[in-house]
């Protein structure tokens, strides 16, 4: 019987032979040592019959994050003007429901072009889609045709839904 199949008993003694002080902060499971419990589970308390059920009850069904990216290929001689255009834009994204953050990224030169990516994080894909149907979206993109001379071809759109999110641990 594997660890995920064992019943989770909140008050049962730990099956892991390591003392709690030695449990890994990064990898809280000790399946390789036969332990199906974690210090975090002990701290949160019980309520489910097994580890998987316990975790499902405490995690959202879907991670609430969507990343929308547009990739641009810019000739090196246009890089300064392209960056100035983006840095000089007035943005209203921070006022929108579901908007989390925006990054304009500069990458390496590849095949004679400087790679750039606009990277926008939204609380959900629905929030992103709502923005694309809004007047705010139309206003933000009304001058997009003017920048075509600065980059090669059309921007390549890529949208991603989060399946995992790991944050840095806060050290006290």
Task: Give a written overview of the molecule.
With 172 residues, the protein is of the alpha+beta class. The chain is 22% helix and 24% strand. It has 5 helices and 4 strands; from the N terminus they run H-H-E-H-E-E-H-H-E. It has helices at 39-44, 51-58, 79-87, 125-132, 135-141; strands at 66-74, 99-110, 113-122, 152-161. It has a 4-stranded antiparallel β-sheet. The chain is globular. The protein starts with 38 loop residues before the first helix and ends in an 11-residue tail after the last strand. The model is unreliable at 1-18 and 22-35 (pLDDT under 50).
Rg result? 24 Å
Low-confidence stretches: 1-18, 22-35
User: Helical content, roughly?
Assistant: 10-25%
Largest sheet: 4 strands, antiparallel
SSE class = alpha+beta
- In N-to-C order, the SSE pattern is HHEHEEHHE
**End-to-end CA span:** 38 Å
Helical stretch tally: 5
């Amino acid at each position: 019987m594997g660890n995920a199949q064992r019943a989770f008993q909140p008050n049962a003694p730990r099956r892991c032979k390591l003392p709690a002080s030695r449990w890994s902060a990064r990898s809280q499971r000790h399946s390789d040592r036969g332990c199906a419990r974690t210090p975090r589970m002990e701290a949160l308390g019980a309520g489910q019959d097994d580890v998987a059920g316990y975790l499902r009850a405490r995690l959202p069904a879907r991670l609430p994050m969507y990343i929308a990216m547009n990739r641009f290929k810019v000739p090196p001689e246009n890089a300064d003007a392209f960056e100035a255009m983006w840095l000089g834009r007035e943005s209203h994204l921070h006022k929108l429901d579901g908007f989390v953050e925006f990054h304009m990224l500069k990458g390496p030169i590849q095949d004679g072009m400087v790679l750039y990516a606009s990277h926008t994080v939204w609380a959900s894909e629905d929030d992103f889609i709502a923005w694309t149907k809004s007047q705010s979206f139309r206003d933000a993109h009304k001058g997009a045709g003017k920048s075509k001379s600065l980059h090669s071809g059309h921007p390549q759109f890529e949208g991603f839904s989060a399946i995992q999110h790991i944050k840095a641990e806060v050290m006290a």
